[in-house]
Amino acid sequence: MLEYGEWMRKAQFYKLVARSIAVVAVGANLIIAPAHSVTSMRNLHYVEGKDPAAPLFNPIVVNRVDLMVPQSSIDIINSEYPVEYNAMWWRATNFSYVPAKLKITTATKTYGPIDVEIHLKGGWGSLRSLGEKAGFKVKINSTGNKDQRLLGLKKLTFNNDVQDGSYVHEATAYRLFRNVGVPAPRVGYARIYMNCAPDMNPEQNSTCIDYGLHPNIETMDEVALARWVNGTTHLYEGGTPYFPDIYNGAVLQTDLGDPTDTSDFRELAQINQLDGADWYNAMLAHTDLKEMTLEWATETYVGHWDGYAANNNNFYLHSDSNGKFRMFPWGTDQTWGGLQDLYVEDGWGPSTMVAKCNAYAPCREMYAESLVTIWAKAEAINLARMPRDIYSGILASSMGPQSDPFSGCNVYCANANAEGISNFLKSRSDQISPLATSFALVAPELAATPTTKTITMSWVGKKVPGVPIKSYQVQQSIDENTWVSLKLDSPTKTVIRNVTPGRVFYYRVRAVTSRGTTPWSPTVRVQSK
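Predicted structure:
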């Protein structure tokens, strides 16, 4: 397996070798095709949801976004940008929204121009000035236009991807989160231009700037959450500069809900004062703990070293009207390279809730089962193919990463990055596949009920994602020494008829799985009636 740093250096090498696109096949069968050959079936495959905005989050299409930003707004943005870049790690970047205009051009339609408000997006590590590759937050329901929407959206988030030279980390990682049932943003792509569109009447002497390709990350607000939740009391956001865990006094940003009443968070923080069974049972009552273990385990699976599980960063904490909490991911641009240990024992070590879960056997098993679920889903959706599909689409666009003036990525760079993610997924599969086998090779549970002249038996095998049960074998004995296999009425139930009353029989069952045959179940003794 190529380590993350190794394949990123390889990507940079390829980028220097050739910056122009070629229609070639390189390495692991990556083919960059003309736009018309990106099949509509694959195109639709990646478009999730039926809402009007869904096509904006198609990860194999690049749309054009034009911003018209007046000098008065530019002056405010520049004045708020930290003069001393390294000093911003310890302070929040709560920038002011300033007036601008927005236009989005797709292959079939143009939206706008409309009045919006914008500010820079980013924190320690990713924040860039207007003179660099800036990222942007766009408020569509701006001051004086609170009811304004664009395809139902209130906000847009354009990530500059300065911490992800591949451009594909977020789209690939978030897709896996969503497929295992964890709410996560959809991702499309946009080429961002400022003061370049004549029809938007930029001010005289303004400078046209091409900011290059940006992932269009679905903003996690009430619009996006409506696809996943039934009601919101609070949406808290955890991240820099505080790196908060879940404890009383932790500083999280309140994105939705009443910031003056955070009693729900304080109650969750109080639970984290407990340990073992007390903590586990309280978490079951006040959180969707199974989904939380899926969130933590998916962070681990994709190597999200900068998320909640390993770094108390880049996460959302959502409470519903009943005060029940769920956790959602954010900031997955630096994935597919770190966190080799499945239980987050490397790096900075696990966060409080992950550590408490892994310290208590029933929760650790739940977490391990979540790892297997994630592995099976990644295999089922062929996640390793997704980076290649993305590149086939966005490199076919003249606005794709190959022409990004700040941090381009051509076909050679793309192939190296896709290969790196594929290798990382292979490594994860090698780690988790044996765990799936150990879960699968557990004896089924058998029950037998005698009635007049009949004995009805039923059994349940352990269902493990990615390890299907092919069949069951059931045996009968009168002395527990000699066993006879029975013909089954159905895969999980059979009835033995015309049984002589008063006789004693013994039964056992085992499952034949794709990973082998389980042990026999404990013997069940039955006396016929």
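Summary: The mean pLDDT is 90.
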